[in-house]
């Protein structure tokens, strides 16, 4: 066989060309695949950045921090991630850390939607954060002049704010005319050196902020607004409180000849309608929320609750001889009550002997459980930055004699009533809280004072949300019996609260008298009204005014007359 090559041409040069073409095709395919992967990863990373922005704006810092940690080391969008890291610091109020990162980013382009963050800080009155971010954007060349105007206004710098307004473009002035009108109204107040910042439930002014003194000046009596100063200083906000100014002023008039404190709760939502303080020491403090004192006989409603809850041994009828031997000591009553037919009568006449025996019968463990469930030793009730203090009792319990004292709300004679060693203490707020629980069968909304907060443009960013709190659940029968007994305190001819009786509303009350004759007795009262369909719970103490069944009940009667007068 002969092979003929005459029609076949062969060239090493052509072969090399074909190899180069194949290699180029492979390179192009690889480049396309890598580019596609790069684009896909870039899109994915961009979505994660947008998701991170959304998490921050939804105020979900935990999830935002976790996502930031995942994407921080990625090659894509490094400057955008640094800006978001700075914003995360601002959201967590670590302002100096955020500010340092932003200073290093000046002049760099990012994919962060800055306006969303500017609006968030403005809407939530986070003016310091707004200032830091606005300054960064302005240095970067973004138009954030309007936000700078708002920052200066929020920091009470009306001159700088007015100057910035002059240089706003005419079109932007027209677009933002409503907001600028609000800003101009604020400027007018700032020029006077005072701006109203706290309002009552009906939008009547309660206090103004003195810009030079950096101090809140009350416009109502009996309330110390200093807890709000730290929140308002260099940070313009407008608070709406639950206080009703006319009722607060009525209580002030009733306290003309008295010292002490008074609180009134609206049981529909546990809003604090009035919180009045006029302590003997005359310190400008909200004693109604913080001052602890011996509760005296008002504790007996909880001793009775414990007795009824545990189906205590039947004590009645009993003979009150004015004294009872306990632990080789004599436990005394104020009076010799003689025959006491029932626990209703025992509460009505406030028989110490009857309640000492109830306490001894149920024992310290059971009484302690009830006290704990009614918020003794609880640390108090919180409302934003406010903390309303509740009472305490001493868990160190070596003797029956001290149990008898605890059962009637008295400390030992050698104990200082306000010391840490006191057997039991309460506050005026706490006493009203207990009455609120009893009035509504153990479940009420958590008491609150701050209804809502608005930013400088009158946009609300906080509104109180009610939260149910409980003492004992599923004890309606016990609560009903305690309520009926508290009604008898006023309705019984022998009741210690009979002088508070009025013909237009029925009240359920417990009286208590603490202190001593030498310094003057403290009159303490707590309860709720109307007795059959409770809407309000109250408590007050009249320091060194006299016994509760005299001065205290007459004060309550005058309050009810004043409260219901048109």
Structure, explained:
- Helix content is 45%, strand content 18%.
- By secondary structure, the protein is α+β, with helices and mostly antiparallel strands.
- It has a domain at 250-564: DD-peptidase/beta-lactamase superfamily (Beta-lactamase, 3-Layer(aba) Sandwich), CATH 3.40.710.10.
- The longest helix has 46 residues, at 12-57.
- The chain is elongated.
Q: What is the CATH-assigned architecture of the domain at 250-564?
A: 3-Layer(aba) Sandwich
User: Whole-Å distance between the termini?
Assistant: 132 Å
Could you tell me the radius of gyration in angstroms? 35 Å
CATH topology of the domain at 250-564: Beta-lactamase
Helix fraction?
40-55%
- Per CATH, the superfamily of the domain at 250-564 is DD-peptidase/beta-lactamase superfamily
Q: What is the count of helical runs?
A: 20
Structural class: alpha+beta
Q: Count every beta strand, where a strand is a DSSP E run of 2 or more residues.
A: 21
> What is the C-level CATH assignment of the domain at 250-564?
Alpha Beta
Describe the global form: elongated
Biggest sheet: strands side by side, in what order?
3-2-1-4-16-17
Strand content: 15-25%
Main sheet record: 6 strands, mixed
User: On the 0-100 scale, what is the average pLDDT?
Assistant: 89
